[in-house]
Amino acid sequence: MIRQLLLFSKNMTNMLFKGCEVLSDKLMAEIWEVNPMPKLSHLTLDNCHTITGQSLQHVLDADNELAVLRVWSCLNITKLLHIELVHRIKNENLDVYFEWYEYNE
After folding, report:
1. Burial, 30: exposed, middle or buried (Cβ in 10 Å; 0-12, 13-18, 19+)?
2. Domain count, the chain
3. I want to staple 75 with a disulfide (CB 3.0 to 4.6 A). Which of 49, 87, 95, 105 is the partner?
4. What is the residue range of 22's domain?
5. Does the predicted model carry a pTM greater than 0.85?
């Protein structure tokens, strides 16, 4: 269902996923191949444990309007990855507010 919704939402600006176990790097790659979401400005992932840094790197690479990236309590987004993303955003002078909260069991 998520795939069908996102494939055809070309003007999507805000996405919030909470506890979404079906959301994976593979699924997001398939969606972005068809719908690169050029107007995406806010992405929030809350307790999405199957997403990894691969999807976060992709959304930073993409030609979009990303201004806010929030990653809260996602198992595969570690403190080390958080630090890498903070450095990337700073070094590339990206105009992105990045907020991260560590996963706690």
Report:
1. middle
2. 1
3. 49
4. 2-101
5. yes
